[in-house]
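Hi V.,

You were right to ask for the full record rather than a summary. Here it is.
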Amino acid sequence: MTERDRVVQGILEGLQEAVAYSKGETIAARVTVLEVEDALNARKALKLSQAKFADLIGVPKRTVEGWEQGRTKPSGAARSLLKIATRNPEAVLQALK
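Predicted structure:
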């Protein structure tokens, strides 16, 4: 099977799954859960703007925007930091400032 054939086959399978889903059929699917509220809650707990929060944790502002809008997902280490910041914002401020 050529690369072109594999691509066409993948597209056809995707279309078949979309049709089955639209008919209410159960299909095997990959589900991605984005923890939008983790980033937003952590930033609000720290009482920082997106820009200042991004600077504090060492990521670009667009990264924080992506997390808060659900476009991207924080890495494992970032998720851990966000949880700590939500639960104990003073500790994060003390450690990172």
